[in-house]
Amino acid sequence: MPARNTSLRYGPVAQFLHWIIVLLLVIQVTLGTIADALPLGLERLVMMSRHKSLGITILAIALLRLGWRWFDAPPPPPMPRWQLLAARCNHWALYALLFALPLSGWLTSSAANRPVSWWGLVQLPDFVAPDAALKEVFEETHELLVNVLYALVALHVAAALKHQFFDRDGLLLRMLPGTRE
Ligand code: HEM
Ligand code: HEM
Question: What's the alpha-carbon Rg for the chain, to the nearest Å?
Answer without folding.
Answer: 18
